[in-house]
Amino acid sequence: MPRQPSMPDPTRRMTPSLARSLDSMQVWRRAMRQRLAAFAKLLDENGLVDAAGRSALDALDRKLAADRLVVACVAEAEGPAIGKRNDAAAGGCGAFGR
Prior knowledge:
Number of domains: 2
Distance between the termini: 43 Å
Strand order of the largest sheet: 1-2
Number of strands: 2
Largest sheet: 2 strands, antiparallel
């Protein structure tokens, strides 16, 4: 008889290590934007950046501000392919930048 999958506990929270990792990424992104702003200011104050360079720095800042991380979790699938596993049905999480 096939093994019955256990139902996930809807009250279970995200694991602390994943939450800490996501928090660390947010802190890193915020610090990177601050460093980029300081670098851009240094370049401006010393006349070391032209309009194209300033545009590139602004674009990088906008990208850092708009980037989001999407975490997708895939559970083990049950159905017609019982007994056959593939990467999508094996379960796990992956992070994708956007």
